[in-house]
Amino acid sequence: MKYKIPLVFAFVCGILVVISEFIPHRPFNMLITTLQDWFMIISGFAILLGQISLFQANIKKIKEKNKDWPFYLAGLISFTVMLIFGLLWGTQEYRGIFGQGEKIQATVGMKPFDYLFANAFMPLSSTMFSLLAFFIASAAYRAFIIRSFESNLLMITAVIVMLGRTSFGGMLTSWLPEGLKFLHLPNLSDFIMEFPNSAAQRAILISAALGIIGSSLRIILGIERSYLGGEK
């Protein structure tokens, strides 16, 4: 019984959502609005459970002095500080338990939560993505090693697109006559991005959509039951 009720509930809700996409009239439009509200409420509880799980996992690793435990401690402290500041003084759009924090805003120019977000989180995020750029460059170098026809094609296409997006690429082919304007690197780059790249992206999106449809049908029809607690 503990498995049948969630299966029936998932089936009914899934069918109602699908029908509402094709019949956006009463009573289906009202039902989908209600289901969306329920989803937001359940998501709130899911976020709370995720936060509790985060605390438990980090505290366990800190107590056991696992490898890199200082990083878990730093993450836990950061999470706690941001949570406390958000609850006590709120964020830019919402007030906290202690109100808007006018005195603090007069001192630092914004609320504590927003101050840490703008002056700590954002610079750290920029640093992280800057480091990721080097990893991407390393991966691109390994991918561009000429080993096969596909590698050659990938390398040539990447070089054309990268050069075509710079002023240097335009200078390299500026000597071509007007009749060969389509061979200018900026034009070739735009052509590759507009047609082959768009076609490949749409194919990937269609494949992803078909995969989502298949997974959704498996859940609606009760074939996929892993969300019930491990039952297949």
What order do the SSEs take from the amino end to the carboxyl end, as H and E?
HHHHHHHHH
Rg value: 27 Å
Q: What structural category characterises the helix and strand content?
A: mainly alpha
Q: Per the principal axes of the C-alpha atoms, what is the gross shape? A: extended
Largest sheet: none
Give the distance, in angstroms, between the N- and C-terminal Cα atoms.
16 Å
Helix content: over 70%
Describe, in plain words, how this protein is organized in 3D.
By secondary structure, the protein is mostly helical. The two termini are 16 Å apart. The protein has a domain at 148-231. The chain is extended, with a radius of gyration of 27 Å. It has helices at 4-22, 28-63, 69-89, 102-108, 112-143, 149-164, 167-172, 185-194, 196-220. Helices cover 74% and strands 0% of the residues.
Salient structural properties:
232 residues, mainly alpha, 9 helices, extended
